[in-house]
Amino acid sequence: MYAYLYDAFVRERRYEALVNRIESRIAELGLQGKVERLTVLKNAREIVSDAKRKGVDTFVVVGDDSLVVKVLDILAKTNVTLGLIPVGPKQTIAELLGIPYGEAACDTLSKRIVKAVDLGRANAQHFLLSLRVPRPTVVLKSDQGFSISASGPDDEIAITNFAPPTGGTRPISSIPDDGLLEAVVTPGSRRRFFGLGRARSVVSVFPLRRLTITCKDECLPLVADGEVIVKTPVSVEVVPRALRVIVGRNRLF
Amino acid sequence: MGHVETVIGPSVKVEGNFVGEGDVVVEGIVAGSVRTAKNLQVGQAAKIQADVEAENISVAGEIRGNVTCHGKLDLSATAKIIGNVRTSVLLVADGAVLHGKCSMLNGKEPDAPPAPVEGVDDRPGMRIRR
């Protein structure tokens, strides 16, 4: 049984023709279900919870990354499968899952390749892609008994669950079904100074299952999946195979 | 699970008992202990103040601590180890520095050297007059 949740911006005129094509294709493929739209009076949490209660087994979001992030928490560790029909500009999640834009995503839904992916959990907030730390003045403490600190003032720190593979001689791979998170420290400074700049460009990667992030002097806001703020101290862990999601053939894992 | 690798870059400091998942590459600073069941690579700029244990270890930087290597320990020309070393196979390049005891993990205790006989000087060309 399918249910669809349309983001509010999808009603804008510029998406009207696309939405009509999507709805026609859903009907052709026999994938109809109850349709709900985000409004000021109805939020994603209520809509998804209601759908779960009514026995929906596939919940499809029609929108962009923001809407997927909104429903992640509610669908985590349930038997409800998440589907996605990408509409709008921010589509990092759809690209990683191999889901094509617009009405072509309906055919991906119909093929129903379902994968169970890991989620990260930062305090009580689940995230699919990454948890970004805005300043490197933090200490990461692994549950195995060691701590990690960055020395560069411009270093960037992220806890990633799912990211496209990087290039270079030592590519970093954050795949969402390995049961691990990666703490990635990217040096900010790439200036070359007597060869030191080259050495500082090595990206540090720590595969971890559980860690805490603390900041000595302040309560630092961390950003989960580009949308949700979580404040230090933060306890982060991987939740293996927490989300069932329909993926495409061109997925990046 | 696929190949898992930990990389400790030059801008990072690790403190405590570090246990790696898979291969470990150290280019930064580690204080405490470093252990992995796989391979450990210590880069030229790395400074490890820790006891170290791994299957195979290649060293181009500095380790101040005891080293236990169950396979091959490879010291390059820029390697510096201040500490005791236990390994199955040892490769030492010209210029490497090793200050400490070295013992082999081949399962066989070395034969004890013969006890010196009193009054006998066995240096070549020497005789003792009684």
Secondary structure topology:
The complex is a heterodimer of chains A (253) and B (130).
Chain A: E1 2-6, H1 16-29, E2 33-37, H2 44-53, E3 58-63, H3 65-75, E4 81-86, H4 92-97, H5 104-111, E5 113-122, E6 125-127, E7 130-133, E8 139-142, E9 146-150, E10 156-160, E11 181-186, H6 196-200, E12 204-208, E13 210-214, E14 221-224, E15 228-231, E16 234-247
Parallel strand pairs in A: 1-2, 1-3, 3-4, 4-16
Antiparallel strand pairs in A: 5-6, 5-16, 7-10, 7-14, 8-9, 8-13, 10-11, 11-12, 13-16, 14-15
Chain B: E1 5-8, E2 12-19, E3 23-26, E4 29-35, E5 39-42, E6 47-54, E7 56-59, E8 62-64, E9 67-75, E10 80-82, E11 85-92, E12 97-99, E13 102-104
Parallel strand pairs in B: 1-3, 2-4, 3-5, 4-6, 5-7, 6-8, 6-9, 7-9, 8-10, 9-11, 10-12, 11-13
Report what the structure shows.
The complex is a heterodimer of chains A (253) and B (130). Mean pLDDT of chain A is 88; it is low at 190-200. In chain A, helix 2 (44-53) crosses helix 3. Chain A has 6 helices and 16 strands. Chain A has helices spanning 16-29, 44-53, 65-75, 92-97, 104-111, 196-200; strands spanning 2-6, 33-37, 58-63, 81-86, 113-122, 125-127, 130-133, 139-142, 146-150, 156-160, 181-186, 204-208, 210-214, 221-224, 228-231, 234-247. Chain A is elongated, with a radius of gyration of 20 Å. Chain A has 253 residues and is of the alpha+beta class. With 130 residues, chain B is mostly beta strands. In chain B, 0% of the residues lie in helices and 52% in strands. In chain B, strands 1, 2, 3, 4, 5, 6, 7, 8, 9, 10, 11, 12 and 13 form a 13-stranded parallel β-sheet that branches. Chain B is elongated, with a radius of gyration of 19 Å. The model of chain B has no long low-confidence stretch (mean pLDDT 86). Classes of the chains: A alpha+beta (253), B mainly beta (130). At the A-B interface, strand 9 and strand 12 of A face strand 1 and strand 2 of B. Strand 9 (146-150) of chain A pairs antiparallel with strand 2 of chain B.
